[in-house]
Design goal:
The complex is a heterodimer of chains A (115) and B (109). With 115 residues, chain A is mostly beta strands. Chain A is 0% helix and 52% strand. Chain A contains no helices and eleven strands. In chain A, strands 2, 4, 5, 6, 9, 10 and 11 form a seven-stranded mixed beta sheet that branches. In chain A, strands 1-3-8-7 form a four-stranded antiparallel beta sheet, with no helix packed on it. In chain A, a hairpin with a 5-residue loop joins strand 7 and strand 8. Chain B has no helices and eleven strands. In chain B, strands 2, 4, 5, 9, 10 and 11 form a six-stranded mixed beta sheet that branches. A five-stranded antiparallel beta sheet of chain B has the order 1-3-8-7-6, with no helix packed on it. Classes of the chains: A mainly beta (115), B mainly beta (109). Chains A and B meet through strand 4, strand 5, strand 9 and strand 10 of A and strand 4, strand 5, strand 9 and strand 10 of B.
Chain lengths: 115, 109
């Protein structure tokens, strides 16, 4: 069974640009969540999606957005990039049912560098 | 005060030693996750606990809901166990996790 796939793995952008990251969950998983990891702040929750609906959003500015498609694939977008957005962005999928946390399966992450 | 505190921050052990990493939290939870992150970034979920104890190979995780405390034990540690171990809390049955700062474990041969 294929794992969680994140693309691209590495990318470099300049301030003011926008970026879209993609996450393909494990087949059959309907829950996808996104996390940001930086040396200063550690791991922080960004979004949670279940069956195309955003269930939760973390404490991030409106420049951070996401969505989930009918095939459970998810994308997140960061507009007007700032230097502080440089981070490892991790996606996880879960076989959870509505209302119950499932075991999380993480992708390898997308490492974004903003210059 | 952080909602989740891990200790120790750094831990160095000799191969074969028994290792304990602790996680204390101050909020109600629906589950607690223990995660492992190797250099390079990939994260692996080791355990998800809501009560009691779980064992997988040389790894054991326990949780005491009343005391709001969990421990991760590694028996017969090995250099390949060297990684950052992260405790994360789930509330309300969601994946909106609150993360500890991690424990960096180095196991020397």
């Amino acid at each position: 069974k294929a794992g969680v796939t994140q693309t691209p793995r590495y990318l470099i952008k300049t301030r003011g640009q926008q970026v879209t990251l993609s996450c393909s969950p494990i087949s059959g998983h309907r829950s996808v969540s996104w996390y940001q990891q930086t040396p200063g702040q550690g791991l922080q929750f960004l979004f949670e999606y279940f069956s195309e609906t955003q269930r939760n959003k973390g404490n991030f500015p409106g420049r951070f957005s996401g969505r989930q498609f009918s095939n459970s694939r998810s994308e997140m977008n960061v507009s007007t990039l700032e230097l502080g957005d440089s981070a490892l962005y991790l996606c996880a999928s879960s076989p959870r049912d509505r209302g119950h946390t499932g075991e999380l399966f993480f992708g390898e992450g997308s490492r974004l560098t903003v210059l | 005060k952080n909602e989740v505190e891990q200790s120790p921050q750094n831990l160095t052990a000799q191969e074969g030693e028994f290792i304990t990493i602790n996680c204390s939290y101050s909020v109600g939870i629906s589950a607690l996750h223990w995660l492992q992150q190797h250099p390079g970034g990939g994260i692996v979920s080791l355990f998800m606990l809501s009560s009691g104890k779980k064992k997988h190979g040389r790894l054991i995780a326990t949780i005491n809901i009343q005391e709001k405390h969990s421990s991760l034990h590694i028996t017969a540690s090995h250099p390949r166990d060297s990684a950052v171990y992260i405790c994360a809390l789930s509330q309300g049955g969601s994946e909106k996790l609150v993360f500890g700062k991690g424990t960096k474990l180095t196991v020397n041969p």
